[in-house]
Amino acid sequence: MLIKKPSDIKPSEITPPKHYKQRRQFIQSGLGLAGAAMVPGLWLPGDAHAAREKLKGVVKSPLSTSEKPTSYKDVTSYNNFYEFGTGKDDPARNAHTLVTKPWTVKVEGEIDKPGDYHLEDLVKASTLEERIYRFRCVEAWSMVIPWVGISLAELIKRFQPTSKAKFVEFTTLYDPKQMPGQKRQVLHWPYVEALRMDEAMNALSILAVGLYGEVLPNQNGAPLRLMVPWKYGFKNIKSIVKIRFTEQMPKTTWALAGPREYGFYANVNPQVNHPRWSQARERVIGSGSLFTRRKKTLMFNGYEEQVAHLYSGMDLKKYF
Ligand SMILES: Nc1nc2c(c(=O)[nH]1)N[C@H]1C(S)=C(S)[C@@H](COP(=O)(O)O)O[C@H]1N2
Ligand SMILES: [Mo]
Questions:
Q1: Is 82 helix (H, G, I), strand (E, B) or coil?
Q2: Which CATH superfamily is domain 35-255 in?
């Protein structure tokens, strides 16, 4: 992968000056704490979220749900991230081997501004928002998670898509040394996900860089992951290193692994069951000690008002 040196990138290419200053704080605090993580003794074995780090300048979003967030502990210890193992507790134990600084995102395809962008530059040009979203895994469990992220639509506009850009594809890092789960062929690596352009441009779509006001723990997809709350969890690809704009619908990892079970759209839909289980209800993670609460799953995960228009006239049983 070609990587531009920092001196090759003019912040003015992508950064309005007001945001640039504001975001510098984010970077400085980031670099400071990256140092702290190297101090022996601050590292607890098996603790992938050592050196927790607050994000500055986060504004609250009116698009947040008022539901009570799932505990920090549950959000950061019950994960799906097969690059670190297929068990729910594997990512929290294993993801400390992922190096998230520095981080470069290659942006290519049907756009006028392709390039290798430093993550800091992308983030400091954007507004950091807290978005408390419902989250529904295709395995029929759910959480409420206070993400910190940037608007995907605003970011995409800066890359200036051409009229041929119909889809946007995201790719996770491929590095079996950092991601030991990639040594096993449980999925086609690297993990790939994609959205139709109008889905990506919807106001709900964000790229998350944090949760609970802090930098994303590695097990939750640091340093940059997708969050589209009306879709099943597997669409929300983690640790993104590439964003590509295409004319054709991209081939996505789970749709390749099980085309009858996982569709491209993957909209949360209680009326369309998975071939092997019902999607009508969900297990609410962390809701009780003796028994877990189950609740009815909502169409588009409760975001029908914001996104139903994207699919008008489409047969959602066929395009699941
Ligand atoms: N690269 C990558 N992204 C991924 C996954 C994965 O295994 N690899 N799992 C997906 C699935 S199935 C879910 S439910 C969510 C889980 O996100 P969380 O652990 O932050 O709750 O991440 C999604 N993104
Ligand atoms: Mo999932």
A1: helix
A2: Oxidoreductase, molybdopterin-binding domain (3.90.420.10)
